[in-house]
Amino acid sequence: MKLLSYFHPIVWIILTGTIFTRIASFMTIPFMAIYLQNELGASPLMIGVTLGIAQLCSTFGGFIGGYFTDKLGRKFIILMTVFIWSAVFIGFATVRVIGLFIVLNALNGLCRSFFEPATQALMIDFTEEKKRRRLFSFRYTAINIAAVIGPLCGVLISGMSSARIPFLITASMYAIYGVFLIFLFKKYEMSQQKLAETQTILQMFKVVVTDKKLLYLLAGGILINLGYSQFDSTLPQYINLNIENGVKLYSVLITLNAIVVLVLQLPIGIYTERISIIRSLILGIIFFSGGLFSFGLAHSSWGFIAGMVIFTIGEIFAFPMMNALIEEIAPATQKATYLGASQFKNFGGFLGPIFGGWLLVHFEAQLYFVIAVIILMSIIFYHTAFLKKTNEVRMEGTKQARQHDV
After folding, report:
1. Residue 43, Ramachandran bin (φ over 0: left; ψ between -120 and 50: alpha; else beta)
2. CA–CA separation, 64 vs 85, rounded Å?
3. Residue 308: what pLDDT?
4. pLDDT confidence of 197, banded at 50, 70, 90?
5. What is the sign of the dihedral through the CA atoms of 136, 139, 145 and 146?
6. Structure pTM?
7. What architecture (CATH level 2) is domain 1-188?
8. Domain extent listing, the chain
9. SS3 of 298, please?
10. What is the pLDDT of residue 164?
């Protein structure tokens, strides 16, 4: 009961909804490439374009989604997005033309880039500042619970029925969640943060791009995401080239990644509350790099397993803190805008597979050493952003002290 009272009921409901909707997403998205190949006969190039368009739209749509969340309110954006999302997955199950599938997956990426900042901003509205770091840790745990359950459900359902059924189930789950949220929003009064009516999206864009702290954080996030994307792109190929039964080992590593997150998220989350955000983030970056470095040295299954444990510990330290830092520097009336702008860091996830693939072809032995160094370079950007924030707080304190003396 003490744990349940730690957050506002609406926060717990949104966190539970995060598990529910992410399970729905994980049932289908990881298997989309196979679906496109088997059901639509798509070429590898068209599959790549289809999958990449969602990441690209999510990267650039986050700022717009965050802006409109602050402008129009959390409730409107969340409800509009979740029902459009449901329709998108119905489209996935029914369209048979690859061009339409590309358009639908672009909408899928846009829906995520609108939905994520809106739900995060809503939870922040109902959470005391001192509890927000733990909120981001709990949200990350919720996503990883879904990452374990969702793919298993997808495999089970696909094996028992048509390949289209998981898409329809996902659409139904989003629609059910949307109806539930309608009743939820009626029960709890939404205290909406809104921007001044005179502030346009271009003016808001200028505010964001002139905030050097945010730009440094985004630069660091791009480098981290460039490195993390190797987990899904080059690592399975690298293992398959160097280890017998590489596909089986990679499956074990995916499961191990989720298990380590679920087991260590709470103790590491409690520990990070005792140290600064920047120190937690730097620790995560060091572990990230250590895991990648271990992949480069590994010559057996156990080497990759050890590297994955180290890599995942870095993930636990770093990922919740990346959003916590963004939230901390954001003005009170622009939380969703800044969280939306943070989606630009996903551009690293777009560049990572391309750059990693090039390294795999031309510098296979050095691949993970190069990526490890790139991730370490993100510390420079995060530390610079932290110093700028500290200096601004100090200057503001000095200014207020002088005004008080006068």
Report:
1. beta
2. 17
3. 95
4. very low
5. negative
6. 0.71
7. Up-down Bundle (1.20)
8. 1-188, 196-398
9. coil
10. 84
